[in-house]
Amino acid sequence: MSMLLRLLARHWSEHAQQAALPVPAAHALIGQAADPGAHANALVIKGLTVSYGNAPALFSVDFSVPAGTMGAIVGPNGAGKSTLVKAALGIVPRISGDVRVFGQPVSGALHRIAYVPQRASVDWDFPATAADVVRMGLYRQAGWLRWWRRMPRDVVLHCLDRVGMQHFATQQIGQLSGGQQQRVFMARALAQQADLYVLDEPFAGVDAATERTIVHVLQSLARDGKTILCVHHDLATVPDYFQHVLLLNVRRIAAGPVHEVFTPDHLQQTYGGRLAAAQLDSLTSALAAGPSRIASPPSSSS
């Protein structure tokens, strides 16, 4: 068993580049507000530059996310969205730039961050149950065997229940649907009790019910004072889901509150003039209408 746990640690740690907080009681996972202290911004990125070979993937990007809000990173394919979050978290190297989390260098604040990678980047054939994946959110806080025995089952089940996956705790992760797998990774992030949640394309390739479930969980976290940052691809839902947005295409095009930044001119600059007039009109109308009421998620898992 200990050999299996060491293999699990090596495999999954590639997708969890942050430390974990001490194991909380199950009741502490409900409605616990964040305390970001005197720092108005949860995340501040200055002058971030990343290069793959001779081509810059990101060039001198400045961006900040106010504490207790939901922020999105939006841009076309190849704009550097995923690279930005990975470089900010130290998963990929950066040529230059400074990253602060609640006023601290990111290296000293990793225990306050939960990272959910792109689903496509994970080897879902690895032998682990849904409950195992949630437990892995806390493995860094102790030795593997001590951690495995210590993680209360009720905490695991509570995190799975928040995303509608409690009844799938013993299911092999590879046997779940894409939407169910994404819910399990969201439960894993919840177990970390972070102050800043960074998600890379959390809604890509999932069903509508899963998207509603994850949105409700993220909005609940934001109401409790947590900060959310998502790499996001669906322009139509940006005004509904987020308060702040970064429009990115290798360089920062614009950043700030959605109602100020999400304009036809900025979107055309971001997408190189490739957005149709009808699409721009639809986005402008959605922004003018304000955030819509998102339907409650169904109780069953999809």
Helix share bin: 25-40%
Main sheet attributes: strand count, strand direction, barrel closure: 6 strands, mixed
What would you call the quaternary organization? single chain
From the alpha carbons, calculate the radius of gyration and give it in angstroms.
Answer: 19 Å
Mean pLDDT: 82
Helical run tally: 11
Report the portion of residues in β strands.
Answer: 15-25%
How widely separated are the two ends? 32 Å
The stretches of 5 or more residues where confidence is low (pLDDT under 50) are: 1-34, 298-302
Strand order of the largest sheet: 6-7-8-3-9-10
Q: Please provide the count of β strands.
A: 10
Give the CA-based shape. Answer: globular
H and E string = HEEEHEEEHHHHEHEHEEHHH
Q: Could you say which structural class the secondary elements and strand pairing correspond to?
A: alpha/beta
Summarize the structure.
This protein is α/β, with parallel strands linked by helices. The chain contains 11 helices and 10 strands.
Structural description of this entry:
It is a single chain. With 302 residues, the protein is α/β, with parallel strands linked by helices. Helices cover 33% and strands 21% of the residues. The protein contains eleven helices and ten strands. The chain has helices at 2-12, 81-89, 130-135, 144-150, 153-162, 178-191, 208-223, 238-241, 258-261, 264-270, 277-289, and strands at 41-52, 55-66, 70-74, 96-101, 104-105, 113-116, 196-200, 227-231, 244-249, 251-257. The strands form two sheets. Strands 6-7-8-3-9-10 form a six-stranded mixed beta sheet, with helices on both faces. It has a four-stranded antiparallel beta sheet with strand order 2-1-4-5, covered by helices on one side. Strand 1 and strand 2 form a beta hairpin. Helix 5 (153-162) packs across helix 6 and helix 6 runs parallel beside helix 7 (208-223). The longest helix has 16 residues, at 208-223. The model is unreliable at 1-34 and 298-302 (pLDDT under 50).
